[in-house]
Amino acid sequence: MDAACTAEQDEIRRTLREVVTKHCGPDDVKAAVRTPAGYDTGLWAALAGRLGLPGLALPEAYGGIGCGTLELALASEELGNGLAPSPLLATAGLAAPLLLALGTSRQRTALLPRIATGELTATLAVPGAALATALGLVGDNRGDWSGGGRAGGVQARVVADTWRLYGQVDQVLDGHSAGLLLVAAHTGGFARSRTLLFLVRGDAPGLVRVRQTALDETRPRARLELRDVEGELVGDGSGVVHALGDVGERVAALLAAEAVGSADRALARTVAYVKEREQFGRAIGSFQAVKHRLADVYVRVQAARSAAYYAAWAAGEGGMPPGSDGSGAADAYERVGGLALAQGLDALRTAAAEAVQLHGGIGFTWEHDAHLYFKRASGDELLFGPAHRLRAYAAERAGLFAGEGAEGPPETAEAAPAVRVDGVDRSRPVDGAGV
């Protein structure tokens, strides 16, 4: 991986930073989240119409720009820097890649160009609080998270050659405003249980959408009630679980980059404040204890940025092993998105906590915007984590612990590959201790 950004990537970052700095001050963000849409529609029109952000990673054949996950991650980092509320994550991170991977030629041609221009926003709806599981971030997404043939979730059945959906979905990102919903529903009964994806129009008869109160107002969510709602099957119904896992890797990289942008901004605001705030006749930033705390945050942010960039690169062609056919299958990639997301969330939580602490009395007030960063970190952990589960599942897939790997650990110690840290073989116990 080449860590240096290209001229095109630098231009994407520079342009977006100008827009975000101009339109996403603390007061602007607080005003935007209280609108019916939950975001600044004028800003979204500029991001979509003038900059083509929703189509940044879509092929040119569907009206997109033809860039990759890394460019979209760089854009997400800049939006995270200003905590900009927008439907980008739900539309370009979740829904569009699923349509591209699973949709029929007719569905892709009809919907993706509208998504690329920002005319149509979309989101993914999965039952309960199972979004992280459905995306394969904290558990095997081949389970029964969509209902499993039992009560709950969303059920789908054919009535007069038309798919009808019935059920309820909570915690849907931008579910109250999205013009198109990709709903994961269970069908086939208990004996032939399987999960399918369906296209549901935002104004479909029988669909009730209620915006919910969320810890993080910059991530608006909704509860969907589907009462015999008509849905259109996405593609031929095959490969849903595989595609969700693939999209999960990309979304994790985008979220990690976004968290890095937010953490970087929280740190910068805190550094600026401790240079001005005086105590005992000197700036508090001159005290060694404060310097050490902020230095630790800086190291965390830089490490998280490196991890996020690598995850975004690995989620594209850069992470595909030699000889891969380039089909985009989830298991054709080096799966590091969950680890990058865990590191990004940790960095943001630490940066936000230090911002609250080092701002002193004003850091605890609703009037100050330090709480916005802390709530972004906590909200993302609730929806896509938490960090310890992201790491645990990554370790399980990698087979770091005996009997827990997806492919299983080596049969014998002699067959185990050497694990070297600083040039020392750590694959075997030392002095009777485990690794």
Break the fold down into its secondary structure elements and pairings:
Blueprint: H1 7-23, H2 26-32, H3 41-50, H4 69-81, H5 88-102, H6 105-117, E1 122-125, H7 131-134, E2 154-159, E3 162-173, E4 180-187, E5 194-201, E6 207-212, E7 221-233, H8 240-276, E8 278-279, E9 282-283, H9 288-314, H10 337-358, H11 370-384, H12 387-398, E10 420-421, E11 424-425
Parallel strand pairs: 1-4
Antiparallel strand pairs: 2-3, 3-7, 4-5, 5-7, 6-7, 8-9, 10-11
Walk me through this protein's architecture.
The chain is α+β, with helices and mostly antiparallel strands. The chain has 3 domains: 7-119, Butyryl-Coa Dehydrogenase, subunit A, domain 1; 124-239, Butyryl-CoA Dehydrogenase, subunit A, domain 2; 241-406, Up-down Bundle (Butyryl-CoA Dehydrogenase, subunit A, domain 3), CATH 1.20.140. It has 12 helices and 11 strands. The strands form 3 sheets. Strands 1, 2, 3, 4, 5, 6 and 7 form a 7-stranded mixed β-sheet that branches. Strands 8-9 form a two-stranded antiparallel sheet. The protein is globular, with a radius of gyration of 22 Å.
